[in-house]
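Lab manual, section 2.4: Encoding a predicted structure.

Procedure: take the sequence of the chain (76 residues), apply the prediction step described in section 2.3, and record the output as structure tokens. A sample record is shown.
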Amino acid sequence: MVNGLRADANIEGHFRRLLRLLNEEPRRAFWLHLNLTTPTFENLGLPLTTPDSLVWQKCQQEQLVLVTANRNDEGM
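Recorded output:
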């Protein structure tokens, strides 16, 4: 079961844009039907400087999908 989505701190802007797109027609009804939460770092009791491993662990505990940038792209 998935309760929601949480973006990693380094892609907050991209995540906000994604949420705006999901809330536009014709996607809005589908997005609302999913009934997913999108808690902030603050909601989760985490500072923005929390290490990746702890963010991932918290997301696992809360059953959240962690949306993150491609960490394996060495060309960046």
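Check your result against the sample. The CA atoms of residues 41 and 47 lie 6 Å apart.
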